[in-house]
Amino acid sequence: MKVILGHLYPEYLNIYADRGNMAVLERRAAWRGIELDYRPINLGDPVRPGEHDLLYVGGGQDREQALIAPDLAAKAQQIAEAVAGGAALLAVCGGYQLLGRFYRDRAGAELPGIGLFPLHTVAGERRMIGDVLLECELEPGMTRTLAGFENHAGRTFLEDGARPLGRVVAGFGNNGEDRTEGAVWRNVFGTYLHGPLLPKNPRFADHLITAALRRRYGDVVLVSLDDQVEDVAHKAAVARAGG
Ligand code: GLN
Question: Which of 21, 88, 103, 155 has the fewest CB atoms within 10 Å, counting from its CB?
Answer without folding.
Answer: 155
